[in-house]
Amino acid sequence: MKSNVLVLCTGNSCRSQMAHGYLNYFAKTKANVYSAGIETHGLNPYAVAIMQEDNIDISAHTSNHVDEYADVNFDYIITVCDHANENCPYIPGSAERLHHNFSDPSKLEGSEEEVHAAFEATRNEIKSYCKNFVRENLT
Predict the structure, then answer these.
(1) What percent of the chain has pLDDT over 70?
(2) Which residues are registered as beta bridge partners of 99?
């Protein structure tokens, strides 16, 4: 039976979208992966581009509000930023809750090279986290 995994962030535009892409990639048929925000900010084009550099296409993802998944019984809820962890609405069920605060590259102001480097660093950290999550939890 597939596990239901929710990745939750503030705006469901960047970090949660990257995690969603990697969890889909690493879990393959072991999980149904959802991502949502406590707000919706639209899909961040830099997140799409940095994932494409690693051959993960998230361009068809949508920015969803957590309330859209009220009928899903989650096995895991992963918050990927402190704000979402602290402000996560009550989600009924017995999901195991995990938290890791990834840096937010969308907040960086700098040169194109600096922004790219920030997105790449966050992407690589998320990739490693997701790979370990799947190995440890979705056997």
Answers:
(1) 100
(2) 79
From the list 48, 77, 81, 118, the catalytic residue is 81
Q: For residues 78 and 98, is the Cβ–Cβ distance under 8 A?
A: yes
Out of 88, 98, 108, 115, pick the active-site residue: 88
Helical segments of 28-90, H only? 45-52, 82-87
Q: What pLDDT does residue 88 have?
A: 78
CA distances, 107 to each of 15, 60, 70, 82, 120 (Å): 12, 23, 29, 14, 14
Contact (Cβ atoms closer than 8 angstroms) between residue 19 and residue 7: yes
- Based on the residue annotation, tell me whether 88 is a catalytic residue of this protein: yes
